[in-house]
Amino acid sequence: MAGVTRTPTTLTQDSAATKGGIGESTLRPDGTLKVTGEFAYSSDMWHEDMLWGFTLRSPHAHAEINGIDTAEALAQAGVHAVLTYDDLPTATKRYGLEFADTPVLAHGRVRHHGEPVAIVAADHPETARRAAAKIRVDYTPLPVVHDEASALAPDAPLVHDDRDDHHAEHVPHPNIVHRQPIVRGDVAAARARADVIVTGEYEIGMQDQAFLGPESGLAVPAEDGGVDLYVATQWLHSDLRQIAPVLGLPEEKVRMTLSGVGGAFGGREDLSMQIHGCLLALRTGKPVKIVYNRFESFFGHVHRHPAKLWYEHGATRDGKLTHMKCRIVLDGGAYASASPAVVGNASSLAVGPYVVDDVDIEAVALYTNNPPCGAMRGFGAVQACFAYESQMDKLAAELGLDAVEFRRLNAMSQGTVMPTGQEVDSPAPVAELLRRVKAMPLPPGKQWESGDAAGTSVDVRALPGGLSNTTHGEGVVRGVGYAVGIKNVGFSEGFDDYSTARVRLSVVGGEPVAVVHTAMAEVGQGGVTVHAQIARTELGVTHVTINPADTQVGSAGSTSASRQTYVTGGAVKHACEAVREKVLELGRAKLGTYHPAWATAELVLEGGKVVTDGGEVLAGIAEVLEDEVVDIELEWRHRPTEAFDLTTGQGRGHVQYSFAAHRAVVEVDTELGLVKVIELACAQDVGKALNPQSVVGQIQGGTTQGLGLAVMEEIVVDPTGKVRNPSFTDYLIPTILDTPTIPVDVLELADPHAPYGLRGMGEAPTLSSTPAVVSAIRAATGLALRRVPVRPEHLTGT
Q1: Per-residue pLDDT tens for 421-464?
Q2: Cα(284)–Cα(279) distance, rounded to whole angstroms?
Q3: Does domain 42-142+214-261+268-300 fall into CATH 3.40.50.1860?
Q4: In degrees to the nearest 10, what's the CA dihedral of 321, 323, 325, 326?
Q5: What is the per-residue pLDDT across 677-724, written as a single tens digit (0 to 9) for each?
Q6: Per-residue DSSP letters for 231-267?
Q7: What architecture is the 11-39+498-637 domain classified under in CATH?
Q8: How far apart are CA 190 and CA 202, in angstroms?
């Protein structure tokens, strides 16, 4: 791994005896298939005699539906069904991730551009599309709620005038989804002690998850009146909980199997085509496949919340923070999705990884007629990080201090009490991560002017930053910037966050073979690799099979919140430990009379054998098992959390925290307003790198996603609520030509409360990479730059 260093400190057990265990960079079982294009994604599924589904979507952001005429669509040859809200089979016609406020199909009115209004099943995808175009919908446009001013005005139209949920009682206006204040200490008194006070207003654009595999799935009606759904999702059991009531079926008759997922990043936590595909399959009695095109995908999933943030910080002349006040307004769009949880994260992490005793924080999410927003990598912490890190740069400049040393002076550590009153009880090496990232060698300046001893010019394609986005002229200036962030791990605020694993150990062909079965969604993060590594380590076997994820085993929760290796990995470890104890119990019963070590020694399973703590082999696992099968399914939970108080924000709301620091090096063409990111160095504590190569890949991927938010990615929504750039032609994401060098320094400080000491780490690098890039652009240009993404006109004044 070129450019990567690892620094282990306190580590938990490793198994060197069984190859492919934890701590090794084992190969991904799906890697070769994905690289060669042979991997089967959900959009590749096929069934004999299947139909194709298509969704008719609203052209308006807010409009009354006066009537829907489907006669012409139904008359088209090849069409098997056209369904609207009135055709839904049960009284349950709404669903939702946290509470049910989203109609399966629009009823009475539409609330955002692209909302589903009707669905069609036909024998060819083009036939379905043409039939949908023949559906006549009579709309009367309504006033649009598009920002805080229009949402909270005295005469504001209500996005949901029938609102009925558990958040409604404690918000000041029906167009607010959720509000979370956090108050600690005495801000007024601390403000009086401050020698310097800086304020700032910041804005984050709406970012798309931009996964490459569009929403897709195949619903197959079953002989028992149920349905089998093969789908790309992040959370099988959450989907099941929402789907079954709408279909009027018990959950056991809605059988879900994970199909190949082409990326997720939060965008597949909410339902897209799942209910629609099942409804059409049950109505027609035929398998129905739905595959969104890219245009539909932009309307078919939630996005990152755009945000406006107002911050105030104070500090003493010697650089110690005195207080922080902030207000964070997140645009949740037309439906709630995960907005309440995003508010909880944004508020509880609004201070950042710093010690501030006196805080006054308010975060809210709005209902508007903009596209719905929900989970995306970083989940509320991304928005806050851009603001508080911009403030750290402003404060350091005002005090005349080095920006990194100012951050280190105020950095939190183990034992720090968060603004929510929760003590950080595991390593929090914020100052050390900043020191490490600053100490990494800088890339050479003006690389395009360099050459070798023979005078041969440099091929810019081989240079850090590649061919991305600048010229090589006199107007190009360099800047360096830093940032650090804090992200929670796992579901928070009292959510019963658990996972289930089933582990089976048997003898096949004379060799012990383990089978691991969970409902974990493999979305590209490498969980299937890690589960096999855990089984090899705990059971001491070489051969491990990972069963496909489905709902025939208990829930694994969502593949999000950096939780799967921690929680489902913990469940696999827990189940393996139980299987191991059962094998040892069988061995004692069958063979214990032959050797006293069965009863007196510490026994482990290694290399397919039962081994004493002194290294003596007592028996082979296959000999112990013979024809027996050990099959155990168990749930595993981490430490409980609690909801934040709705008045003070106090509470032990989070399971664990993760930290990452970045240094960005950029070159800016000040004449053209173009930015080239040369390098994005990262230092991150991961607790324990179960698969070091996968860890580095996650860090580099998250870093690149933060780069996209900094200088490229934004869904443009006009004041009428219309999305103006629903395509990869107009919504830009970083390609390999835009991706800089990303050297990574991996620190491993074990969390004693976590399996193997690991720390969920997939999201943290997405936080700090964005403000680091913008900090570097500010250093190069001297501009304030309070909004992301930074566009050329922000740099040239045009």
Answers
A1: 999 999 999 999 999 999 999 998 765 555 554 555 666 666 65
A2: 9
A3: no
A4: 30
A5: 999 999 999 999 999 999 999 999 999 999 999 999 999 999 999 999
A6: E--S-HHHHHHHHHHHHT--GGGEEEEE-B----TTT
A7: 2-Layer Sandwich (3.30)
A8: 24
